[in-house]
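To: structure desk
From: M.T.
Subject: fold request, one chain
Message: Could you run this one when you get a chance? Sequence is below, nothing fancy, just the single chain.
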Amino acid sequence: QVQLVESGGGLVQPGGSLRLSCVASGNVSNIHLMGWYRQAPGKQRDLVATVSGGNSPIYSDSVKGRFTASRDVGKNAVYLQMNSLKPEDTAVYYCNAMVLVGFSGYDYWGKGTLVTVSS
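Reply: Done. C-alpha cells follow.
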C-alpha cells in the first residue's frame, strides 16, 4: 500500500501561481511513476503531468508551457508548479503513484486538493 498526501491548493487570481506538493509513504520502493491528475466539476479525471524516476515529465497539452512537474525520488515526493493560471484550471488536483509489481501496475491516489482560479 502507498499513501499519498497533497498540499498547496487554494484560491488564486487568474495569471497567478500555485505550487502543489505530494509526499508518498508506505511501500514506496516500487513506485514507477508519480504525477498529477485533475477533475473539474462534472468532468472526468484527466492527466495533468506524470514524472518517471528519471524526472522526465509528460504534460497534457492544456498545461504545457505553464506548469512544471518535478519529482524528488529521495523524498518520495512530486511537485507541480502552476504558473499563468486560468479559470479553466479550476479543479480538484489528485496526486497519483503507479506501482509496478512484476508486470502489473497499480494506481494509488491522494484525497485531492482544490485549486480555484477566480477573480
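Reply (cont.): The chain has a mean pLDDT of 95. Let me know if you need anything else for the meeting.
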